[in-house]
């Protein structure tokens, strides 16, 4: 079965795959990292750290989305996506230097904000550029990418910590994250050339066509 994707959708999925595969390396070892390497680390600290990331991300996600929608141009969405992903990719480096629960909490809050910004931009562009009559298929391909990649990486992450150290894992996550950011640069020209939301542009053209018909 061969599925043809347009360039923008293809690279958005590639970026998701690489970035979230990197973070999949952390998922099985993050709690162990906090317990072993953070002063005062405990199961409670692990829970608070996870909660901070999810809650902060949830709080700012809709305001970011509303701002992007109100701008009505792809440039805003693209830079939200790019800068958010870049900040998110650098967070694991911060874990290497973290020593207290407060450090972890701050990093998790920044990560939540970064990923809210990135997701707001990413979903906007993906929705605008998705191929007609392939909507479910292309959203499904991305869902598979962010499921299988991190799933495999989870096993690898545990292996890396066993034979190397947490620092090696965090560096690997950052490298993969930066590759995910780099992939977005390959579609910069195509995205920025579309200054108006495609759906809005279509509706505008359709409205003009109907007015002509009525006249």
Question: Explain this structure to me?
Answer:
- By secondary structure, this protein is an all-alpha fold.
- The protein has one domain: Growth Hormone, Chain: A.
- It contains 9 helices and no strands.
- The protein starts with 6 loop residues before the first helix and ends with a helix.
- The C terminus is likely disordered.
Spell out the blueprint of helices and strands.
Elements (H helix, E strand, L loop, with lengths): L6 H18 L5 H8 L5 H29 L2 H24 L3 H29 L5 H29 L2 H20 L2 H5 L5 H17 L1
Helix residue percentage: over 70%
Helix/strand class = mainly alpha
CATH homologous group name: MFS general substrate transporter like domains
Number of helices: 9
Label this structure with key terms.
Growth Hormone, Chain: A; mainly alpha; single chain; 215 residues; disordered C terminus
Task: Give a brief rundown of this model.
This protein is mainly alpha-helical and 215 residues long.
């Amino acid at each position: 079965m061969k599925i043809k994707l347009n360039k923008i959708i293809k690279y958005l999925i590639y970026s998701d795959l690489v970035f979230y595969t990197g973070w999949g390396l952390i998922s099985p070892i993050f709690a162990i990292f906090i317990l072993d390497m953070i002063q005062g680390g405990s199961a409670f600290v692990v829970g608070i750290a996870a909660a901070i990331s999810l809650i902060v991300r949830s709080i700012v996600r809709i305001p970011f989305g509303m701002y992007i929608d109100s701008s009505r141009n792809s440039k805003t969405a693209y830079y939200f996506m790019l800068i958010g992903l870049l900040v998110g990719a650098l967070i694991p480096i911060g874990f290497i230097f973290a020593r207290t629960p407060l450090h972890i909490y701050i990093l998790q809050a920044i990560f939540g904000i970064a990923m809210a910004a990135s997701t707001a931009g990413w979903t906007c562009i993906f929705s605008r550029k998705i191929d007609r009559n392939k909507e479910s298929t292309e959203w499904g391909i991305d869902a598979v990418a962010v499921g299988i990649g991190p799933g495999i990486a989870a096993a690898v992450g545990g292996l890396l910590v066993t034979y190397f150290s947490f620092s090696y894992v965090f560096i690997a996550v950052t490298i993969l994250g930066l590759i995910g950011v780099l992939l977005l640069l390959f579609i910069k020209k195509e995205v920025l050339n579309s200054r108006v939301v495609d759906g809005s542009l279509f509706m505008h053209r359709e409205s003009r066509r109907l007015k002509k018909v009525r006249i």
